[in-house]
What we know:
Layout: E1 6-7, H1 12-17, H2 20-32, H3 37-44, E2 57-60, E3 69-70, H4 87-98, E4 104-107, H5 119-129, E5 132-137, H6 146-152, E6 157-163, H7 166-173, E7 174-175, H8 179-195, E8 201-208, H9 216-223, E9 229-234, E10 249-250, H10 251-255, H11 263-266, E11 267-270, E12 275-277, H12 281-285, E13 293-296, H13 302-306, H14 309-320
Parallel strand pairs: 1-10, 2-4, 2-11, 4-5, 5-6, 6-8, 8-9
Antiparallel strand pairs: 3-7, 12-13
Helix pairs in contact: 4-5, 6-8
Amino acid sequence: MSKNLLFNNSNRLYRILVRLNSYQKLTAHAISHGISLKNLAISQFPYLFKDSLEPPIVSLEFTNYCNLKCLYCTSSYEKRNKGFMSDEVFKKVFDSLKTMKPTRVQIVGNGESTIHPKFDKYISELSKIKHYVSIVTNGNFIKEDIAEKLVRSNIKLIDFSIDAGGKEAYETSRKNGNYDKVIENLLKLKAAKKKYYSDCVINIRIMVRPSQMGSYKKEMEFWKNYADRVMPQFLVHINNTEYSHDLFKPIQKNQNSFPKCSLPFKHIEVRHNGDVLLCYHSAYQLKNEAGLKIDNVLNKSITELWNSNIMKQYRNAHRTRKEKEMPICLGCSGC
Length: 335
């Protein structure tokens, strides 16, 4: 296997260095909205700190429905039951978050969050109790008013995921995607920011394949015309998934080794039905879309789930490198 195809996704220092300018600006923005420097530092270098009693980042999956079928994304396989987060699940999440210290809330998951009929209402409610709410979107909005709804929801960061390589490459990788529509929606967002005097940040993540390593920096200059920040994100093959063409290979898979992962120290994700897994990688590692399930927010609070025996076991195993206590992490790319 060619060395230039291998990628260590859990190398936090490298990830920061290739995105340094953007990270500096995003860090300053988060701090200006009440996120502590310690919270931000734990998410990058958790091994330098004691385990946090609460998750620095809470991710919410509003839905796993998606309007695109990206070649490399697990959403396209449609192995999970599709659905939308219910008001009942959202209320449980909301009540949990109200009791927690300032933390970041990310709206992301295995679908396009803006498809949820109440996405803007949910974000507006979350923004009342949490200083820094962000969303990841493919930018192919299904309704004309979504850009304005996002800005008016008081969201702080909007992450666009866009494939490198121009229109043809983009629309080949992203089935049903419209390159020109994404640009149009970025312009709508910029106009809405100006209209409502919003300081939310529009950040573009350029999805980079190995064959594009020599050209993506030039393309980043193009996208700076449409966003506040632009950063690269390297497309790594997800273990136990079918599509692998022109993707980076996890070095851990090649070496049959364990990553030094940051996920169990910084991040907890609530699926649209309320299920909480050890991490999103656990579903791929176990070849089971249910993943290593801890419990459900309908039964326990986010803080209780974060401090569950499984979470503690895997945090300790990564910290002490006790491989027998983190069996599902073998060969995983980590984060």
